[in-house]
Amino acid sequence: MSEVLVVKLGGTTIADQRQVLGEVAAVARRRPVVLVHGGGKRISEWLDRLGVPSTFEGGLRVTDAASLEVAAAVLRGVVNSELVAGLRDLGVDAVGLSGVDGGMLVAERVPGMGLVAHVVGLRRDLIDSLLVGGQVPVVAPLARDEDGIVCNVNADDVAAGIAGGLGARQLVLLTDVDGVRDADGQRLDSLTAGEAEALIDNGTIAGGMVPKIRAALLALGWDGAEAIIADASAPEALARALDDPTFGTRLTASRSPRVGAV
């Protein structure tokens, strides 16, 4: 199992991400890191300015040709560039790309969602070459579908697909909530795959948390692998996600002793 760490950030402004970027930079000096980002809020802002309506189903954005053009511009042109520049300011040799570059992500269209795809495989040569060179890939969630059409992809799905494809031991999904909650509203420190599926089935896990959980579970194909959902705005969010079992929610394939972070 690989010591590569895959981190997913939301797509808010660089000012909001500065603390977490500093933590990513610190970790990247000790172990290989792949950073995946979203951009949903920024995309919605631009679509509103342009008068293009937004529609969501099951926590995912339905994407037509007009909204894809905006999404691609915001994700690859704005958010990705900001994060790469921010990391480079911190002394990290970051490289921006998307799942389209080098055919890195293998994706298939999601029925009924327009130009939306989900990750079904990873062509890892490009990422491997960057990691071997000591660089931090910063990945925008775009990919070509089976017909070669560029599509929008949920960023959690991209992060999980990369983590699973690399055999990463840890995937950290930094978000705007502090973890997964049970039916009584109490945050859960840990969840097995079976427990998570049961909470989805009974409606306790709903809305945008469902695709996040589904994505996280895809990354758990290795014994000892864990996916951590945690609040990006908390102090020392990434360090605590890696080292503090009471911070956020940890998902594992089955109940087993936690593997410590390096």
CATH superfamily: Acetylglutamate kinase-like
Briefly, what CATH class?
Answer: Alpha Beta
Kindly give the count of domains: 1
Number of continuous helical runs: 8
Helix share bin: 25-40%
Characterize the main sheet: 8 strands, mixed
Would you identify the regions where 5 or more consecutive residues have pLDDT less than 50?
Answer: 255-262
* Major beta sheet, strand line-up: 5-8-2-1-11-13-14-12
Mean pLDDT: 90
**What is the SS-derived class?**
alpha/beta
Could you characterize what this model shows?
With 262 residues, this protein is α/β, with parallel strands linked by helices. The protein has a single domain (2-252), classed as Carbamate kinase (3-Layer(aba) Sandwich). It is built from 8 helices and 14 strands. Strands 5-8-2-1-11-13-14-12 form an 8-stranded mixed beta sheet, with helices on both faces. The chain has a 4-stranded mixed beta sheet with strand order 6-7-10-9. It is globular and about 40 Å long.
